[in-house]
Design brief:
Mean pLDDT: 82
Radius of gyration: 36 Å
Shape: globular
Number of strands: 27
CATH class of one domain: Mainly Beta
CATH architecture of one domain: Sandwich
CATH topology of one domain: Chondroitinase Ac, Chain A, domain 3
Largest sheet: 9 strands, antiparallel
Length: 588
Amino acid sequence: MGNKYNFKINPRLPSREEIQRHKDFGALLRRFRGEQENRRALRIRRLRVLSVSSAAAAAVAAVAIVLGGIFSAPNEPALTAAEYFDRQEFVKPPLSEDIQPQFASFRVDANQGGVYEYPSGSRLVVPAAAFADDRGRLIQGEVDIRYREMHDYVDFFLAGVPLTYDSAGVQYNLESAGMIEIYAEQDGKRVQLAPGKNIDVELVSEIIVSSFNLDAPPRYHIYQLDTFAREWLYQDVDNIQFIEDEILDENDPLLEHKRELLSRYGAIESRAAEALKALEARIPKPVEPLRPHRASPDRPTLELNFLDGSLTVEDNQGGEVQNELAKLQRIYKGVIWQIAPSSPAFDERAFNVSWQSVRIRPANNRDYELTLIHPQNQLTLIVTPVLTGSDYERALQQYEEEYRGFQAAMTDWEAQLKEQKQALQAQAEQEKAKALEAYDRKLEELQAQGIEFGASTRYLVRRKVVNRFKATGFGFWNCDRLIPPSEQRIQAAFRDQHGNFYRNHTAYLADNSKNTVYRLYATDDTPLRFDAGSENLLWIVTDDGKIALMRPEDFDKIKTDKETYTLPLKLIDKEIRSEEDVRAILQF
């Protein structure tokens, strides 16, 4: 008998939906292991069937057919949250592509690189020869950079980017100080960063900070999203810096009181700074000696004598500049002035001019800005006082002796100031504590009057920051810090005003005191953690693209002594067409 091969000509290709449905690698592994067990059990059952008579086997088959026609398979057990999200696309915008943070585009010459400034004030610096194709060959010509920023819980939600981070078996959320996505194309085809190249990013954003800590920003870190491994990967420490004063929310019920508290804090800190300045003036700080520098044989030099009266020095600082130069020339005999590499370009014929006077001022702790002046012209150079030969060796020995004396004097100076500085700081902290007590008393009066505000946000303000980091590849980059799970926990089901329960959906939770968004698997028994002292907002996107919402005032009604709740959602029966529509709904 010939073999019966089953050739399939032009088989049906799977649809995109079927592909997505079977992208759950965890389920695939479980099914593979289950099939192995089934095959092993089947082999055992076959051995047993051989000992049964043909009539009995026929009877068993008949019963199996009857039962199979009467009973359907039992319902699948409920998924765990991990299984549910494993079956989802890792980055999954919940609404259409038009309703998410949009990309800006700019073009650079791949050979030269370039600088791009985003409307927010952010800045990208692209180096020369930064792009390569998928074979690692450098790209020539023009390249299009696609770039977008995400700053708050609405942006994170619309982008569909998860903000979870597992560490030592604990699942944290990432609180963001700003997120970006960046990639590059040439002629519509993606390119990659060349090995060893990176893009310098200065991301301007806002963070939530305590009014107790306005001097230095909290510690954030840089993470890159690995969409293949489905996780955020730590990259570096975020170089974050405040760039503006605190930003107050005009809709904050505590606006005027926070403004008054911050004003009092500012006045206290100003007085403390003035007192410290006066203290340091009473106890002069030792002056560090100037370190001599050896002349470089390949740099041009000038011989300027500030002692013999041959040069007129224009000194607008009451003689301080003239005295400093004379002191320098007395200490270091044989000093000459070398033109620094950072000096502006000049015409060598300028040295044939008889300059009548000079203007000179310190440019840093080594160099000086020297302006040579003539009635018809002037020339500005950056110069460095240098020495040659034995003059340099003698000056270096003298400097080392003076520097040891300077270090001893600094130790004495710091000891004298330490106690008085601590006293000034203690006084400032006492004044701040009194200002805070007055603020708290005012808030207690407001609560007595029935004015509501979140306990977690009563001391919080916003500050504009710039995050500086290097993007070593394309994709999502995030400036974050880890948030531990909230202590308040309930088991929740979700039902709207029409009696509809929401199951097998993604629920989202935002907390007004933290710049993040949490994702939950909505079932009849969802573990829900939230900060009861803050304002919380929870929502679910329906199958037809609408939003069912639970507002902060409904969270306030949750009693902590009850563990299970059916949370009331309000279905907003409105078509969502834009980001503005989403923001109008998702307001605290």
